[in-house]
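Supplementary Note 3. Input sequence used for the single-chain structure prediction.
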Amino acid sequence: MSDIRKANWVKSPMTQGDAAVVFHKQFSPAKEVAAATLEVSALGVYFAELNGERVGDFILAPGWTSYANRVQFQSYDVTAQLKAENDLAITLGKGWRFLSKESEAAPFLGFQDNALIAALRLDYADGDKEILFTDDSWQVTGSPIRYNNIYNGETYDAQFCPGEGRPAAVVDHDKHILISQQGEFVTEHERLPAMELIHTPAGETVIDFGQNVTGYLEFTIQGSPSHTAQINHTEVLDKDGNFYTENLRSAKQTVTFVCDGNKHTYKPKLTFYGFRYLRLIDWPDEVDLKNFTTIAVHSDMKRSGYFECGEPLVNQLFHNIIWGQKGNFLDVPTDCPQRDERLGWTGDAQVFVRTASYNFDVEKFFTKWLGDLKADQNEDGSVPHVIPASLGNMGGSAAWADAAVICPWQIYLSYGNKAILTKQYSSMKQWIEYMRANAKGFLWTTGFHFGDWLDLHDPEQKNGSFGSSPKELIASAYFYYSTSLFIKAGLVLGKDMSEYELLRENIGAAFRKRFMKEGKMKAKTQTACVLALYFGLTDQPEVTAAQLAERVRKAGHLTTGFVGTAYLMHALSDNGYASLAYDLLLRTECPSWLYQITMGATTIWERWDSMKPDGSMNDAGMTSFNHYAYGCVGDWLYGVAAGINTDESAPGFQHIVFRPIPDKRLGYVKASIESRQGVIRSEWRYEGDTVQYSFTVPEGCTATFLLEGKEIELLEGTHNFTK
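The predicted structure, written as discrete structure tokens, is reproduced below.
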């Protein structure tokens, strides 16, 4: 039974501003302690220390949620850290709280104010217990962290003296919003050494870590008293080799350290950065690369998927997909980790969710985020563009808000647990009803939509970033697709879905009448064909697929944006054009996935041409070099190149469909996914003109291998075939 809801929310009695504050509670156990448990939460971010030792390993606790509705609390076993006399110190910073909306204001607590709540339970050996709750007996002091901001960074003053404490201020704030930890902890992961010291043409001192990463720097510094040093972070160097920060927009991404004359090893504690390169400003010591280590920080997801082939550039692409997910799955699925945004964009999440669920175990991660989506969903059923809804109630865009349906359905398929459908069913239904209420004649032709964001169909971008595919076509297609998935979810839960089955039929008929003629799309874009094929809207798939293939060949490359790219490769390979899909995969000229790699990318870019062939940058206002959405090609690598597929009738890989489509240009493919049932493996290799196949089916599972139109049933174990 949790004790934290009996505690009081407290805040600093002095104006906190951008500095962190520390809440102290000194105590001595009355007798022998058998167990000690600390429960903590905050509006903001915190870290706790007991007798100078860190409590737990959760970075940026308690994470980011819909503050008005849900705030996680954490429970820590601190028994081993207790002494006869104890000082519990909890440092509180701003975190994501500065993104809160005015609607989240509460009496005695402004909408961006920070607050803390905690309960320390002492279970004595004789059966008695004592609980220390946050109240005005806790003392508040300043922190040597004199500035903290998620976008701008952190300032640490080693000379700072906190002075006398003042009683914490008790505030009246809702405690029903507290929920036990639901998502994954955010923790430290890889430690990356500095790779190269660079003196740029502009005279800057720069360190290259060789990998675009999300996290922070651990560094050693001494300097003389009062000397102030700065470290700036960025993703790329410009075409002249100088430090490039324009794409960060207003985000400063800086660590400032005020020296006291002693040697310190320090790492930021209340923020994170997206970077590959560091710039040292007024560094007081000789620059020794051994004194600089990057620490990757992300949600503590278990790695589950692996892919390897005979083409090194494709292997690097997969590496980039993995690191893009690591960098952007930091408690919420952010669009990017570096500029002044880092928001949970729904569109990015839904196009990538399948790849995400194969790469890592993200069931808890998405369960928590979808809980916030449901909490922040507007009364009319529309879904905000970002979750948590820090942009207010703006929402309702096709392909973005459809995350309400697509994400829970995919999580169910990947893990076989229908609890996610039960939890999200009402949210899914609300979204379907919103689209139905805004449709006219079963077509959704109204409202704001992002379209096929950042497509390349029109090089001059006459439609700005919204792409060239008609928005009403995309909206109506997603109306059909989400309704189809909602029907499947309802049937899994044993509900009567006949009403929605009729709705789906009517949408499909209206779509074909408005947007198609004799199996061909009237709109001239690749994405129009892709959606009709993948969503099952066309009644003449051979004709639509031939039209898509013609458009790809005519362009010589893909022209799709965020919407079309998610399904482009599948639309080709599912309809007899796998070789053309491989052409797109293996293309190295701009635009393509491998072009980015030829330009040195170590994560996925936001734009196909974020960096142009001459080294110049695309629109600085919207050019991220760690933006995972186009990494959605990963699910094609697993599902088509390697051929590992789920079976909707037996989700969670209880029954596996092996359907690889080999291409000699890759030489070989090896892939595995650790499912709830065990590790699934698929491998093929060319030996001359012969293909050797090998599949591993986990214990208790069955599988089907599709080969030249034949279905070969497989039981558990490893199976080998030659074609």
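The chain has a mean pLDDT of 96. The two ends are 60 Å apart (CA to CA).
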